[in-house]
Amino acid sequence: MCFGWIDSTYKKLAPDQPASQRFVPRKVGSAWSELNKERCRRMIHLGKMTAAGYAVLPDMNPRHFKFDPRIIRALKRRPGAWQYFQSCPPLYQRVRCDTIQIKSHQPKLFRQRLTKFANACQAKQMIGQWRDGGRLPVK
Questions:
Q1: Whole-angstrom Cα distance, residue 22 to residue 47?
Q2: What domain of life is recorded for the organism (predicted)?
């Protein structure tokens, strides 16, 4: 990302062949996950972003993230879920909601992710891998 490139999913093309991963230049205006935006914010903070990386950055202001109203409604309908959600770190809120919102064009998957998330909030539990395997360095 710091060089303005994006990687594809790491996959095997054939059982007897090594896995491959494709890297291509990012296009201006391409979709960015909240997690990738945060990775870039941290790279900028650490001085690791290049001019090519800066050239393709989207709006990086976390305050501009828009929460899907369906997510907010689902959380408010479950006792305690909305209060727990509000107590979670802002980055967690954005990343979790982004993983649901990116599936808005797939209603079944959107509902599944939303239900899982709302149930977890009601149970006062964080879901997903909050630790990023070192890819999201601590400031």
A1: 26
A2: Bacteria
CA distances from 38 to 16, 69, 98 (A): 37, 23, 12
C-alpha–C-alpha distance, residues 127 and 44, integer Å = 27
Indicate yes or no: pTM above 0.85.
Answer: no
Contacts of 3 (CB under 8 A, 6+ apart): 50, 52, 53
* Alpha carbon distance 34, 89 (integer Å): 14
- Do 56 and 72 fall into the same domain? no
* Whether residues 74 and 102 fall in one domain: yes
Q: Which domain holds residue 76?
A: 65-122
